[in-house]
Specification:
- Helix content is about 85%, strand content about 0%.
- The chain is flat and about 55 Å long.
- It has one domain.
- The chain is an all-alpha fold and about 60 residues long.
- The mean pLDDT is about 95.
Length: about 60
Amino acid sequence: MFSKGQLIFGAIFAFVFIIAMIWSYRKDIKLHNYYYKNIWIVAIGVILAITIFATLTFWLHD
């Protein structure tokens, strides 16, 4: 098990890390909106590729 000091360190580290990630994301939100404008097209492509691969795999192994 973890000691009391390790648990306190883990909780503080997680809290500071989450705050830093939120601050970093909020700082870069304008860049995210500019560079990742049509990311849904890529997501559909990835899902479609995985679906086709899984369908072919199950179809060929029957």
